[in-house]
Amino acid sequence: MPRPKHCRYVSSAPSVNYFKPCGIPLRELEEVTLSVDELEALRLADKEGLTAIDAAQHMLVSRHTFGRTLASARRKVATALSQGLALRIEGGSYAVHEGKCRHGRMAQEACSCHTSNEYKEISMQKIAISSEGPTLEDWVDPRFGRAGGFVVVELPERKLDYIDNGASQMMAMGAGIETAERMAAAGVEVVLSGYVGPKAFDALTAAGIKICQDVEGVTIGEAIENYVAGKYPFATESNKQ
Fold it and tell me: What's the distance, Cα to Cα, between the start and end of the chain in Å?
C-alpha cells in the first residue's frame, strides 16, 4: 500500500480553477489537471522568482519534492498551451498557511499529512555525478550535457541510483539544457561534473541546482568522498572555454 502523500503548504487557495482556449466550448475540449500545490510551486519559482531552497521552505517540503512538483507543473502547463487543452486547477494534498489543511486540520496542528519522515527528508541532499558507468568504480565523465549517465547519491544514507543520459548524447544541439531538465525532473540538488557550458549552467541555476565543476580524473566513489569532505566549491559561473 503506498504511503500517504504529505501536505504541501500554499499561500492561498486558487481564485480561478479553469482556463481554456477562446471560442471553443468546454465540452469539446480535453483537459489537463494541475493540482493546487503544483500551481503554488509554479508561482513561487516563475512569478516570485524564489530559489528552490526558499520555495521548498515556503511549502515545507524538501528541495527534491519541490523540484518534482515544479517539473510536473511546467510539463502540464506546456502540454495545455501547446495542444490547446483546457487547464483545470484542483486537488492535491495541500494546506493553506495560517489556515486549515484540506483534510480539515489546522495548519499549525500536527496533521497526519506531515510526519517526522518529511522533516528528515528536508535534511537530505541529492547529488548527481556525470559518469562513464553506473558504479562507484566508474570514472567521472568530464562532460555534463553529453555524459553517458549520472550516478545519483542521496546523502547522508548514500542510497545510489542511475540516470541514463543516452538521449542527450544523440542531440545535435541543446544537449546541456536537455540534461539540466532531466536533473531537475529527478529532484537533483547538486551536480558534479567536469565542464558545464553557459546554457546548461543557466538552466541548472534556474532550477535551483548547485554546480561543482572541474571534477574529473577520479572515480565516482572518490568524487563522493571529496564532495562530502568539502573539497569541491560551488561554482558561480560556467566553465571558461
Answer: 51
